[in-house]
Specification:
191 residues; alpha+beta; six-stranded antiparallel sheet; four-stranded antiparallel sheet; 5 helices; 10 strands; globular
């Protein structure tokens, strides 16, 4: 049984993978901090699993490393299988922002598309300053609730059943507009 003082096993594997990626580039923490806009201390604490990285932090690091968040998270999970049962689908939470992310698709680094189920609590507001991969194609299908999505200067108000398709080149923002939260399916296609 894990206590609140023990790091989450996924955070531990994620921290180790982030350290591997940085070392693979031959970058110091300072160099990565300059490239990502994330402080050295935060990067160091994330690599040592002293903190659970936020979605925004992971997005910045994914942009630097040229991978999607799903790619990064799949690298710290078990090997690829053709079928992933519901109980085995990796779930990651950004408790600070109220964002929960379930990787629905079986992970595989050779595929361009993936499915993600997202949940945002009422009032949650996620802002990404850049896409993890420029030109990333996203399809957002609202299953329950409502979501406001801003891509660049364009804002979209989505309700249950609505689907938004967009290519992501710049900043995006996801705001939960429903008092009961929002649940959506995100299809991601790498360029």
């Amino acid at each position: 049984m894990r206590s609140d003082d023990d790091p989450d096993p996924v955070d531990t594997r994620l921290g180790a993978r982030l350290a591997e990626l940085r070392a693979g580039q031959g970058w110091s923490l300072g160099e990565l901090a300059e490239r990502s806009g994330v402080s050295r201390s935060t990067l160091s604490r994330a690599e040592r699993a002293e903190i659970s990285p936020t979605a925004s932090l992971l997005n910045r690091l994914c942009a630097v490393y040229g991978r999607t968040m799903s790619q990064l998270l799949s690298e710290v999970e078990a090997g690829p299988e053709p079928v992933v049962r519901t109980a085995d689908q990796p779930v990651w939470q950004d408790r600070a922002s109220g964002f929960t992310r379930r990787s629905v698709s079986p992970p595989h680094s050779g595929l361009r598309g993936e499915l993600v189920e997202g949940h945002l609590t009422a009032g949650a507001d996620l802002a990404y300053d850049r896409p993890p991969v420029a030109g990333l194609e996203q399809h957002i299908w609202i299953l329950e609730g409502a979501l406001d999505v801003t891509a660049g200067e364009t804002e979209h108000h989505l309700r249950a059943g609505d689907c938004l398709r967009m290519r992501v080149w710049g900043p995006t923002r996801f705001r939960c507009a429903a008092p009961g939260g929002v649940r959506y399916l995100l299809a991601v296609v790498r360029p």
